[in-house]
Design goal:
By secondary structure, the protein is of the alpha/beta class. The protein is built from 11 helices and 5 strands; from the N terminus they run ααβααβαβααβαβααα. Strands 1-2-3-4-5 form a 5-stranded parallel beta sheet, with helices on one face. β4, α8 and β5 form a beta-alpha-beta unit. It is globular, with a radius of gyration of 19 Å.
Length: 280
């Protein structure tokens, strides 16, 4: 992913393709040029059961090359044609470009967007996430999408203890004012090659806070920088994890963001040229 977020838990997936989790991850971008056609064939199949699809839970569907290739937009047009529900996860303002398609699907309860907001500090954002939208641009996207009738959730992600955790109330206040309906958070995850890359980043950008941050991360994972145990890797354990959980809970209630994300509906699903399928 060209965004190059230093903390990205997806970095090690690039190693399965023979690339490095470091610079290669940010510069050797793999593109599935026939993704819209493959999606159309999948939704047309008799085996397809209408259900929500998340785009994307790994790398961002709105990275710079999307401006030129429009693969995500063309995929959204397929979801629109079939009225199949879709949820977008992104940290790029470019998602607002496709508000026309998303708003149309949202009329059937078949679209929502989750915008990731890591910090409101543009300098920190540029250091952590060098080639994606700055904080104010993400707030602008939230406002534009919400104004178009598209439900927007916010993910404060990742929460890095000792670096951006103190920003949680300020972030939630800002996204609520922009029109977000709900919010959640994800703790920093440092699997495999991500840990040494993040440590190098701390050495370069936050050397004075390095030990504090790493010690707090270890404090949430039983002395390790990361534990993959499901149910704990996204939140952590211990006193620092509890403090962050309480801080987020209080702030999300204060700003009315402690709601569950809207359930997506497949009730309007149809196959082009045919009658609407009976759904159960």
């Amino acid at each position: 992913c060209e965004h190059g977020c230093i903390y990205c838990y997806a970095r090690p997936t690039h190693e399965y393709l023979g690339f490095s989790a470091g610079l290669d991850f940010e510069t050797q971008i793999m593109v599935k040029e026939n993704a819209p056609e493959l999606l159309h064939a999948e939704l047309s199949s008799q085996k397809w059961e209408p259900q929500p699809v998340i785009v994307s839970g790994v790398t961002d569907p709105y990275q710079p090359i999307e401006r030129k290739l429009e693969l995500t937009r063309r995929c959204l047009a397929v979801f629109q044609e079939f009225r199949n529900p879709v949820a977008i996860i992104t940290k790029n303002r470019l998602v607002a470009r496709d508000s026309d398609i998303l708003a149309d699907l949202a009329q059937d309860g078949a679209a929502q967007v989750a915008v990731s907001v890591t910090t409101l500090d543009p300098e920190l954002a540029r250091e952590l996430e060098p080639r994606t939208s700055l904080p104010q641009q993400r707030l602008d996207a939230i406002h534009e999408l919400s104004a178009a009738g598209i439900p927007v959730a916010v993910m404060v992600a990742p929460v890095i203890p000792g670096l951006n955790d103190s920003e949680i109330p300020e972030i939630l206040a800002a996204v609520a004012e922009a029109g977000a309906r709900s919010a959640s958070y994800v703790m920093l995850r440092l699997p495999h090659a991500v840990a040494p890359l993040f440590e190098q980043w701390l050495d370069q950008h936050r050397p004075d806070a390095r030990d504090k941050i790493l010690n707090r991360v270890r404090g949430m994972h039983g002395g390790d920088l990361y534990k993959s145990e499901f149910g704990k890797r996204m939140r952590g354990e211990g006193i620092f994890a509890d403090q962050i959980r309480q801080l987020f809970s209080v702030a999300s209630r204060k700003y009315g963001l402690n709601k569950q994300s809207m359930d997506l509906s497949a009730a309007a699903f149809r196959k082009p040229g045919g009658s609407q399928l009976p759904l159960f």
